[in-house]
Amino acid sequence: MIHLIKGILMIGMAWMLTGCKPETPVASFDGARAFAETEALVQFSPRDAGTGNGRRAAVHLKTRLEALGIKTVIDTFTEETPAGKMVFNNVLGRLPGKTNRLIILASHFDTKAGICPDFQGANDSGSSTGVLLELARVLSERAPFETEFMLALFDGEECRSEYSPQDGLHGSRRLARQIVEGGGAGLVEAVILLDMVGDKNLNITVPRNSSQTLVKELFSAAQEVGARPAFSLGRGAILDDHVPFLLAGMPAVDVIDFEYGSVPGLNDYWHTRKDTLDKLSVESMQTVGDVVLRMVENLQ
Ligand SMILES: [Zn+2]
Predict the structure, then answer these.
(1) Max Cα–Cα distance, the chain, nearest Å
(2) What percent of the chain has pLDDT over 90?
């Protein structure tokens, strides 16, 4: 017993000397893992909403979240579109918190239809999905947090012809409606949407139609991790999956680099066969992952 007490005392002294507890190291975001998740998703390409590959991609994402011990469901629903009735699959994972305040981390995973038979959609929507899966891994290892986290992977973000209440943003409109109908909108602390975050030349321009408080939090987090130069406020608004949440009164921010091309100012890789894995970088994913992780920690 004395030995045991001595041992405990010594460990205690060691803590005091080193200033830290001998715990397992805190998980940190790994850009290479995010890239690997993107590569794995891109195996299901193209993965347009309503197709077999779209469904297979959803099942794959559910499997990835469940492998982290995150309770996940596929919410399958049908909606009218310009191409007729279509079936969509939202993938929703939940990481319980100590309170019922909720942070939603979101990305779409479907590809734009009709580009080319081997369209990868590596940046749009592979990169954001890869970063979100890696964030899910880190958060599940660091859990529990004060807030609950929802990992929301949307289907049907891309429109068939032109954005309208029947075309595009199907998954996000569905989830925003479900949250409002369930009476939980007031508990949502933040909706952080990631979109096109893997470009080698990372230049996040946050659209003006994002909640000011969250834009501030995002820029502070970027400053804290030394990534502030890659983040700025964009010139205009963007219609993206964060909009249905804003319209329902929930704070939301769109973390997007909407300049994806061969030279600065051009967007010639976007929605073309050139949106391939070789245009992405581990470093860009690392930067976005580090910033979003810091941001959600600051929101606790
Ligand atoms: Zn797109």
Answers:
(1) 78
(2) 90
